Amino acid sequence: MIISAEVDCLIYDAQSLKNKRAVLKRIKTRLHNEFNIAVSELEFQNLWQRTRLGLVTIASDKTIAEQTMQQALTFIDSFPEIERTETQIEWL
User: What Pfam families does the record point to (predicted)?
Assistant: First the structure.
């Protein structure tokens, strides 16, 4: 089973694109390392305080894939410098 999510986020403390990219790099690396999820910035690359991330995971069982995605979304919420505003989840 393949599950994907598009996650809109705000990064309030980012004062430049460099700040934003540092925050995103840390989050993306940890998501990949801890949950083996593919992560990419999909939109708003040139805005300091806004981003849309795409997350994708694949598993042999629907329950495992959904559980992994929910853990990853909870993990994103644990970062104080980023706020998840809207999430769209899709099964492929």
Answer: DUF503
